[in-house]
Amino acid sequence: MLIKVKVSCKKPKKIFRFEKTFLDKAEVSDRTIGVSEAFGLSVGVENPNTIYKDLLIDIKPGDVIYITGDSGTGKSTLLSDITSALKESGSFGKVIQDKEVEVNQDSVLVEALGSDLEQAIKYLSLAGLNEATLFIRRYRDLSEGQKYRFKIAKMMSIGANTLVFDEFCSLLDRETAKIVAYCVQKVARNLGATLLVATSHRDLLEDLQPNIYIVKGFGEAVEVKYIEDVKSRPCSILKEIVVKEGSIRDLETLKRYHYRDGKLCNIKKVFKAELRGETVGVIVYSTPTYSNAGRTKYFGRHVDVEHLNRDFITISRVVIHPKYRGVGLAVRLVKETLPKVGYKYVEALAVMAKYNPFFKKAGMQEVEYTSTLSLKSRETLQHLTKYDIDPRLAAAKQYITQKLEKLKPNQIESLIETLLNSDTTRYTLNILIKKRRLSLEETKQTLKNIQTLAKIIQKMAILAQNKRYYIWQRNNNTEE
Fold it and tell me: Is 31 or 253 the better-scoring residue by pLDDT?
């Protein structure tokens, strides 16, 4: 079989011309002669089979191109020719196909891309893998949808300016396919990258939001549609999701997807995002903490208890099912529920805000601040190195517990003395056991319990983290 391909490119207009003809030749045999006699078909000679001819496509850097059509119509061939043309053009930067991306099955996600941790989290978050527990998971343990997202993150991390996918999302269930399609086009547009996909599925138009929609039919049939002024729309799945009041039970169904373990206290309100009867997201509002450096900076003074109890509530959890991350569900949960909790001020502290600023996108004001308590906690945690404990891992209770169990009694006593010299130890202990006054001897006895000591160190590590403070204020025009 001979293949004739003609591809020319007029760079100023970015108009690409494509032509492709396969020359088929059926070898002569008794059976092929029988077919020839019965149906009048030629055998033993080359027959041209043109699948597109004088096909003009105007492509600009940053376009999203969606090729679809029935199996066997030549979608993959057209995708390959367009990919070659974009590479030869020189105007589309580094062109990378998903099949060219090699991934070690045993790779831990944060180790497998980017030049450092910050870059790795940035790319993973862009691809919708913005869950702390996923950061340290191996590629082989991901779902098929998550593997797709990781490949997108990997392509971006190696500098792809044009992303190419054949058989795009073909092995995914259609709901996951729509979510991945929405996420990949959003990432491409945010980075100004060109996106080129081919698939036999025609249900991704709304979520891919293409600039160019190509339907390849049988024979030479090709239909090219240009969609002008593509406006960003929410993921189609969001249309079916309803936000309503929920309960602790809804939090229980999703809590395994949050990086913080432990039971929340003083819960005031719970709302859930529900899709066809299934809870896919939850937001929890709780009583605010008495002391908050971000709040103090925002108001320019310390807010008294009476004012806090009357006017303030805190967002203590926002948990989204991994399948539905990256489509704006967290933003919607926050935005829709802020006016419904009935408080004048709603506040939140976030560790992941640097990579996923959904509180800000939902309309909350970001306040930059430096917490004295955080600085003191970091200073105290540095003493852990003397006991073979890595301060960077102190937020992981299981790690801390295992390390403490290996220490000798005299080392435990020494560690307790070190901690008691810190201003933050008594504070965190009071939070933990809900008690404001403990004698020095009571404190020492309490800390001799390995589990309690591990919790104290974990709490310190959480206090030491860099967080961002967000606040929302109800106004007279706010509708409940």
Answer: 253
Q: Who contacts 151 (Cβ-Cβ below 8 Å, separation ≥6)?
A: 98, 101, 103
Q: Report which of residues 113 and 83 the model is more confident about.
A: 83
Which residues form the domain of 177?
A: 58-101+158-232
CATH number for the domain spanning 295: value is: 3.40.630.30
Distance CA 71, CA 373 (A): 62
Distance CA 208, CA 106 (A): 31
Question: pTM value?
Answer: 0.79
Cα–Cα distance, 25 to 46 (Å, whole number): 5
392 and 442 fall within a common domain? yes
CA 349 and chain centroid, separation:
19
Q: What angle do CA 455, 459, 460 make, to 5 degrees?
A: 120
109-126 exposure pattern, b = at least 16 Cβ within 10 A, e = fewer? bbebbbeeeeebbbbbbb
Average pLDDT score over residue span 206-232: 91
pLDDT at 1: 37
Instruction: Pick the last residue of a domain from 201, 232, 263.
Output: 232
State whether 289 and 343 are in the same domain: yes
Backbone angles phi, psi at 59, to 5 degrees: -120, 135
Question: Residues 94, 192: contact at Cβ < 8 Å?
Answer: no
How remote is the C-alpha of 191 from its chain's centroid? 15
How far from 61 is each of 11, 58, 85, 222, CA to CA, in Å? 12, 10, 13, 22
For residue 188, name the pLDDT band (cuts at 50, 70, 90). very high
The reply to whether 418 falls in a domain is yes
Give residue 46's pLDDT.
67
CB neighbours (10 Å) of residue 29? 11
Count of domains observed in the chain = 3
Say if 127 falls within a structural domain.
Answer: no
Is the pLDDT higher at 353 or at 412? 412
* pLDDT at 427 (0 to 100): 67
Residue ending a domain, choose from 213, 232, 251: 232
Could you give the CA distance from residue 163 to residue 343 in angstroms, rounded to a whole number? 46
Q: Determine the Cα–Cα distance for residues 76 and 437; give it in Å rounded to an integer.
A: 72
Distance CA 437, CA 336 (A): 41
Confidence of residue 432 (pLDDT cuts 50, 70, 90): low
Q: Using CA atoms, how far apart are residues 1 and 23, in angstroms rounded to an integer? A: 6
Would you call 215 exposed, middle or buried from its count of C-beta atoms within 10 A (0-12, 13-18, 19+)? middle
210 & 333 share domain? no
Nearest in space to 159 (alpha carbons), one of 116, 190, 191: 191
376 assigned to some structural domain: yes
Q: What sign for the dihedral angle of Cα 402, 406, 408, 411?
A: negative
Query: Could you read off the pLDDT of 350-370 as tens digits, one per residue?
Result: 877 777 889 999 999 999 887
